[in-house]
Amino acid sequence: MEIRPTTDKDLDVFVDTLHAAFGLFPETPAEGGGGLWWSALETDRNLLAMTADGRPVGTAGAYSFELTLPGEIIVPASGVTAVGVLPSHRRQGVLSAMMRHQLAELRARGEFLSVLLASEALIYGRFGYGPATYTQRLTVPRHQAAFALPRARGTADAPATGSDTGSIELLRRAECGAILEEVYDRYRRAQPGALSRPHRWWALGAGRPPVSPAPRYVAVHRDADGVPDGYASYSLESGTLTVDETIATDDAVSAALDRFVLGHDLVTQVVFKHLPPGHPLRWQLADFRAGQVSDDDWLWVRLLDVPRALTARGWFTDGELVLDVDDPFLGEHGRYLLTVRDGKADCVPTDREPDLSLDVRDLGSVYLGGTAPSTLVRAGHIRAHHPGAAALADALFRADRPPHCLHWF
Q: Which of 63, 65, 112, 124 is catalytic?
């Protein structure tokens, strides 16, 4: 078997092979050529697995993204995508060979972080990826959508949280592409776990709404000066209003947009597809039990260079921790002294006794601050070598705010 990079000439073969792996057929291109998710593929970052007689049997790709780390630090990250193996060639080592080849290529590019969205939770842990951000789906019956009166009192100089002095304008998706792109970019730069949406994604309409040109209404929030600072993209069908995503620069903007969609007429229920953990909406409803919540993982993270990754993010507690990290997929092992002072970290090899022993997938899960190391200790995945090690790790790895990723790729 040969694993080789693709060129522009291979795009149709790549797309056809990927769809066949999932038992699907490619969609018909939309008029004007926009809106196909694969239109943003970077062909120089795609891989094809070929049999000895030249038949394509597997695919794997990667996008060039920026990822926001705790501390509002922005770094490059590879977004692994389009991974599939034909049913006729599964369980023959094709997937493992592609993933190993891809990780080697990412390292050769000088990259130290890789991320993906896992189609199946059982697959990617063995390649060193761990779930690192989580998302909630909240369904609110329209007749239970009343907001509670805020109990916090503000002053003229310090208004209560949730006070809004802006306005909302209703637009169609086709009318506000530039606004969506600008507001999302401002949002993702301050949100740990968020990925960039490169301009070409918006220009090509690649991905899911509101990036794609699919018909949507968009509630655009503007501040007191008329500057857009939030939006909610939604569709309405058979009495269900579904919010693709709500982007807001602060809680007051978020609350205003939530009130807008929850107050829509001729609606039986409102579904918020992607809310971050700890979102205040349930608490803002008069009936706390009105919202039905389901949780899911979203962004999975893999560290390709442990010292570079740990020194890249921001930190909020001083301390020292010795991490014994095993990477069974790549056959690697390292022990590192992590020293944090004044928000910055130093990470160097050490022979000191470890505080924690963990798999690289578990390090990926705790990296953005969305999973507490003590949770994985209690689950039996991370070994704490002495009392207090887990609590220290929790304090060190916490983020300034819960990580959240909305972008689909």
A: 124
Shared fold status for 2-111 and 136-293: yes
- 336: annotated active-site residue: no
Q: Is 146 left (phi over 0), alpha (psi -120 to 50) or beta?
A: beta
Q: Is 92 annotated as a binding residue?
A: yes
- CATH, domain range 307-397: 3.30.1050.10
What's phi and psi for 44, nearest 5 deg?
-75, -5
37-41, 152-156, 184-188: least confident range: 152-156
CATH architecture of 2-111: 3-Layer(aba) Sandwich (3.40)
Question: What DSSP string runs through 225-241?
Answer: TS-EEEEEEEEEETTEE
Tell me the per-residue pLDDT of 218-236, one tens digit each, with 9 for 90 and over.
999 999 999 999 999 999 9
The CATH code of the domain at 136-293 is 3.40.630.30
Active site residue 409: yes
- pLDDT for 163 equals 72
Mean pLDDT across the stretch 89-114?
97
Q: Tell me the average pLDDT across 176-200.
A: 98
